[in-house]
Amino acid sequence: MNYARPDIQAMTGYTPGEQPKGTKVIKLNTNENPYPASAKVAEAIGRAAQAGLQRYPDASASAFRLRAGEVLGVDPNWILCGNGSDDILTIATRTFVGENDAVRYATPSYVLYKTLAEIQGAVQDVVRYEADWTLGFEFAAPAERLRLAYLANPNSPSGTVLAPGEVAAIADALPCPLLVDEAYVDFADANCLDLVRSNERVMVSRTLSKSYALAGLRFGYVVAQPVLIEQMAKVKDSYNCDALSIAGATAAIDDQQWLAENVAKVRATRARLAAALGELGFAVTDSQANFVWAVHPTIAHEELYLALKEQGVLVRYMRYDHWGDGLRVSVGTDAQIDALLALLAPMVSRR
Ligand code: PMP
């Protein structure tokens, strides 16, 4: 007997990227940071653990919001924290979208948007990216019962960005809140935080999983005007961020020097990786994130993915309906990228 709601039974569900255990695998498949986080994070977590965990944590993660508010130049009341930015996306969906309301997102993009819409029983209004990863005006067009739009910027898997001016135009035209998912924005040249100040329908979500090298900690946040934040605060789980992650995240955002150094390293390796894949014959999309999207004109991507996996290098093979497939390769350390390129070169030159 299957007791789940019929629409949940019919869902495929979101499958996260492979997470192999052990240290042998070179893991370039889920856009994690290859370097360990600032040492201050573990110190802060240790202190929080020492202080004891018998009490519930601060439900609104005030310590983080205060420090993040200073770093970002926004009032702490404009920030809501989550258990990773996936939690933020869930909270926003539950706050703004009811059953049979519509949500809009672009494709190919982050696959979780579809899952969240399905769980909510929402109608999906899906707009396809153009071949050059720009978005047509349909993305900004009004539609009946449209309650929320998600826009990953930088996008995944492409790593491409829409300029803040383009996002502003979309937000101004849309009749509903726009959630700009800036999971990868620290690796990019520009961000959309200023739009939050000028448009009360814009939300910007961020995560500590990527640029702060804390995917295992689970901490994300959203910045928006109080008119949106106050409603989302009613929907989130009471204690969605635990005391250890609040302490670690606060130390992480406090260490902006670590962030700047890390981002510089990742961007330098990204440029080298993109150039090298280009030399091997891949079309590599110009990326502003910590990964690149590589499409080979003749060789089957799935074969390459499997051959690399067999030799201990994990990249992400992605295939999208009506679009095509390719390999998404996260930026690792220079040594990891060298190992990948050494394996790939004979695979692609043999043809
Ligand atoms: N948005 C995008 C576009 C992502 O790729 C990811 C990572 N899977 C997330 C949000 C969520 O990251 P996290 O929950 O680790 O903050």
Automatic annotation (TrEMBL):
<protein>
    <recommendedName>
        <fullName>Histidinol-phosphate aminotransferase</fullName>
        <ecNumber>2.6.1.9</ecNumber>
    </recommendedName>
</protein>
<keyword id="KW-0028">Amino-acid biosynthesis</keyword>
<keyword id="KW-0368">Histidine biosynthesis</keyword>
<dbReference type="InterPro" id="IPR015422">
    <property type="entry name" value="PyrdxlP-dep_Trfase_small"/>
</dbReference>
<dbReference type="InterPro" id="IPR004839">
    <property type="entry name" value="Aminotransferase_I/II_large"/>
</dbReference>
<comment type="subunit">
    <text>Homodimer.</text>
</comment>
<dbReference type="InterPro" id="IPR001917">
    <property type="entry name" value="Aminotrans_II_pyridoxalP_BS"/>
</dbReference>
<feature type="modified residue" description="N6-(pyridoxal phosphate)lysine">
    <location>
        <position position="210"/>
    </location>
</feature>
<keyword id="KW-0808">Transferase</keyword>
<keyword id="KW-0032">Aminotransferase</keyword>
<dbReference type="GO" id="GO:0030170">
    <property type="term" value="F:pyridoxal phosphate binding"/>
</dbReference>
<dbReference type="GO" id="GO:0000105">
    <property type="term" value="P:L-histidine biosynthetic process"/>
</dbReference>
<dbReference type="InterPro" id="IPR015424">
    <property type="entry name" value="PyrdxlP-dep_Trfase"/>
</dbReference>
<dbReference type="InterPro" id="IPR005861">
    <property type="entry name" value="HisP_aminotrans"/>
</dbReference>
<comment type="similarity">
    <text>Belongs to the class-II pyridoxal-phosphate-dependent aminotransferase family. Histidinol-phosphate aminotransferase subfamily.</text>
</comment>
<dbReference type="InterPro" id="IPR015421">
    <property type="entry name" value="PyrdxlP-dep_Trfase_major"/>
</dbReference>
<feature type="domain" description="Aminotransferase class I/classII large">
    <location>
        <begin position="23"/>
        <end position="342"/>
    </location>
</feature>
<dbReference type="Pfam" id="PF00155">
    <property type="entry name" value="Aminotran_1_2"/>
</dbReference>
<dbReference type="GO" id="GO:0004400">
    <property type="term" value="F:histidinol-phosphate transaminase activity"/>
</dbReference>
<keyword id="KW-0663">Pyridoxal phosphate</keyword>
<comment type="pathway">
    <text>Amino-acid biosynthesis; L-histidine biosynthesis; L-histidine from 5-phospho-alpha-D-ribose 1-diphosphate: step 7/9.</text>
</comment>
<dbReference type="InterPro" id="IPR050106">
    <property type="entry name" value="HistidinolP_aminotransfase"/>
</dbReference>
